[in-house]
Specification:
Number of helices: 10
Order of helices and strands: HEHEEHEHEHEHHHEEEEEHHEEEEEEEE
Shape: globular
Radius of gyration: 23 Å
Number of strands: 19
Number of domains: 2
Distance between the termini: 48 Å
CATH architecture of the largest domain: Alpha-Beta Complex
Strand content: 15-25%
Largest sheet: 6 strands, mixed
Oligomer: single chain
Helix content: 25-40%
CATH class of the largest domain: Alpha Beta
């Protein structure tokens, strides 16, 4: 099997991303950027790791020189994943491993020796996670560090053909996991048990089908996932699982996704157990109409705010259901489940071909249920294409009750 067969971003594309960032540094008149966010580090290098209290950071200069700050326990792992990159700058352990030095001081000393002072960083010091405590990078250096978060994240907004191909594959397996879950739902089943069993079954089939082409990028979660919540709990947009069994007449709001090459998909559906009531049918049709408006409104040249305004206008003027809105229409995603930009009234980002969004306007009826479909959508040259292909119509989403 050649490297080109593996379902992951190539080393050449990671190098191209770093070249783009170098040009961004030149345009911003910056000498160097420090990148601490684990997803941003992976985006630029292909180094995927379990983020802990031990700081990991990437230093990229305007001349294209790269230095990776790592704890010694990650050095071999880094060399295995990124053999083409220079040897890292290491420290023994956090908070010092007996060295008497905080890991961030190792990075600060490296930057001082470089003589480069026009520095940006996505975070002014390592992110606080897993008990980490540490100084700001600017405090250690004694001079300002510019906010460089957007310098990296703006590059991530428009997906490459390779990224879109990975997300398309992830959508296929998210759809498959959802199908397995829907087929397993029946009155009396436990939502947690069905969700986890379906995810594991779909993952087994996914790994069998893809074989060595599939390259895991995390130690957590499964490659194919599906879940649902039920009953009046669905009126909470982010309702937690319940341990009660599914009942006839329950509304279900589902979620399913695949992960391929580190990239995610998104699929959500509103379902019903048994014959739906007239109230359910009315709200379901209203939600589906709002999603249709969002799908049609997403096209290049418009702003995210304009898409949101069109969806809200439909919900207000046609449906008279503004009171049932709890969130905006959608968000970008890729390596993370939520990424910038957002389909929101206060996000004026111009939509471009290659952007990936969820389209998920929801209606939430207190005491009854929530109504939300979500689909993965890629912006094309003339409009958009739905990548998650699971049925949306009510007849296909009824559970025998």
């Amino acid at each position: 099997m050649t490297g080109a067969d593996r379902l992951e971003i190539s080393r050449a594309e990671h190098a191209q991303r770093r070249e783009q960032l170098v040009q961004v540094l030149h345009d911003a008149e910056l000498d160097v950027i420090c990148v601490f966010g684990p997803v941003r580090v992976a985006y630029l290098t292909g180094f995927y790791f379990a983020a802990t209290e031990r700081p990991i950071g990437l230093v990229l200069t305007g001349g294209g020189d790269l230095t990776m700050l790592l704890p010694e326990i990650e050095a071999e792992h880094y060399a295995h994943q990124c053999p083409e990159l220079p040897a890292p700058l290491t420290y023994p352990e956090y908070p010092g491993g007996g060295s008497g030095r905080h890991p961030l001081t190792v990075l600060a000393d490296h930057l001082r020796r470089s003589g480069l002072k026009r520095i940006a960083a996505d975070v002014d010091g390592y992110e606080h996670r897993w008990g980490y405590r540490g100084p700001a990078l600017s405090a250690l250096l004694g001079w300002p560090v510019a906010d460089g978060l957007t310098l990296v994240d703006d590059l991530r907004m428009v997906k490459s053909p390779a990224e879109i191909a990975l997300i398309r594959e992830a959508c296929a397996w998210g759809d498959h996991a959802h199908r397995m879950m829907q087929d397993a739902i029946a009155p009396g089943v436990n939502e947690l048990v069905v969700s986890h069993e379906s995810s594991l079954r779909a993952t087994r089939e996914m790994l069998a089908a893809l074989g060595e082409r599939y390259v895991p990028k995390t130690r957590e979660g499964l490659p194919a996932n599906a879940m649902f919540i039920s009953g009046a709990n669905t009126a909470h947009p982010h309702g937690l699982h319940q341990s009660v069994g599914v009942q006839p007449g329950d509304v279900l709001v589902t979620g399913a996704y695949g992960v391929v090459g580190g990239y995610e998909s998104e699929l959500e559906r509103t379902m019903h157990v048994g014959a739906p009531t007239p109230d359910f049918e009315r709200y379901f049709a209203a939600m589906l109409g709002a999603q249709d408006v969002g799908l049609a409104a997403l096209r290049p040249g418009r702003t995210c705010a304009e898409v949101e305004a069109e969806v809200r206008g439909y919900i207000e003027d046609t449906l008279d259901m503004t009171r049932l809105i709890r969130h905006h229409t959608g968000h970008a995603f890729g390596l993370e489940g939520h990424e910038h930009p957002f389909l929101d009234l206060d996000d004026h980002t111009v939509i471009e071909p290659g952007m990936i969004f969820s389209i998920e306007p929801g209606l939430y009826v207190p005491g009854l249920a929530g109504f939300r479909h979500s689909d993965t959508v890629v912006v094309t040259d003339s409009g958009s294409e739905r990548l998650s292909l699971y049925p949306r119509e009510l007849a296909a989403l009824l559970i025998p009750g």
